[in-house]
């Protein structure tokens, strides 16, 4: 193996970071409930979710936010940084409702880089439904 | 109309959580993480860490119990079936490492009504420390729809 002279990902204003896609399987919300401690039945009980007017079980917003975070830390890693140490801040708004068994797409664009900190704008979508909007991440990149 | 007697400014008792190696692995797998820092002890140590590194969003795991106690406080009076998670912000000072003990304090920072849309916003804040050193803060925005 030889060192790659130029990292494949660069944090520069205007550059798009690699997209992240993941399709949560049928039981993703059950595993996330166990891992996170959030057992709200709207995420794990189809009948309950329908009783409260939802189309069915919905994804945890914080699972989706974790995908937005992962897109940032993986981009940092691809740029030669330590992913979890690079992420300083992440802010999101949850809109729409995420559902299991449909692909989630996270898109991220570097907005600015100042004093070694990159500000990234990010969204998460399922098809045409935006499930995270106005995502803003800050990463230490220099 | 929402209950206007919600105790804005109330601070809840601190709770301490011990970050466990297998809990990090369980969480990392549940969100699809593949970075060896979260999963492979040898890789984490080779990168200079004493043990596995927790993904940033692991904050959800150690903050959930103190946040839950605040949200279920009868004085706050959240109508859970009408609750949606409106927004979330986290700031991280550094990643946590397995074995660390993290102490979290939650406060009810704001209760705001958007009467035009019949929504009530409940905004909670958390602050987490390890041995007195700040490691993360969060702003948790919960929205109750059509509060009676």
UniProtKB/TrEMBL annotation, chain A:
| SUPFAM superfamilies linked to this entry | Thioesterase/thiol ester dehydrase-isomerase
Q: Name one GO cellular component term.
A: fatty acid synthase complex
Please name the GO terms that the record assigns under molecular function: fatty acid synthase activity
Q: Which GO terms describe its biological process?
A: fatty acid biosynthetic process
* Taxonomy, superkingdom: Bacteria
InterPro entries found in the cross-reference section:
Fatty_acid_synthase, HotDog_dom_sf, MaoC-like_dom
* All copies of domain MaoC-like, residue ranges: 18-128
* Assigned protein family: Belongs to the enoyl-CoA hydratase/isomerase family.
The record's section on PANTHER family has: (3R)-HYDROXYACYL-ACP DEHYDRATASE SUBUNIT HADB, 3-HYDROXYACYL-THIOESTER DEHYDRATASE HTDX-RELATED
Q: What is this protein called?
A: MaoC-like domain-containing protein
Annotated source species: Patulibacter medicamentivorans
Automatic annotation (TrEMBL), chain B:
Q: Where does the record place the FAS1-like dehydratase domain?
A: 8-135
UniProt GO molecular function = (3R)-hydroxyacyl-[acyl-carrier-protein] dehydratase activity
* GO biological process terms on file: fatty acid biosynthetic process
**SUPFAM superfamilies assigned:** Thioesterase/thiol ester dehydrase-isomerase
Task: List the Pfam families.
Answer: FAS1_DH_region
Domain of life, per UniProt, equals Bacteria
InterPro entries (UniProt xref): FAS1-like_DH_region (IPR039569), HadA-like (IPR016709), HotDog_dom_sf (IPR029069), UPF0336/Enoyl-CoA_hydratase (IPR050965)
Read off the PANTHER family from this record.
HYDROXYACYL-THIOESTER DEHYDRATASE TYPE 2, MITOCHONDRIAL, HYDROXYACYL-THIOESTER DEHYDRATASE TYPE 2, MITOCHONDRIAL-RELATED
What is the protein's name according to its record? FAS1-like dehydratase domain-containing protein
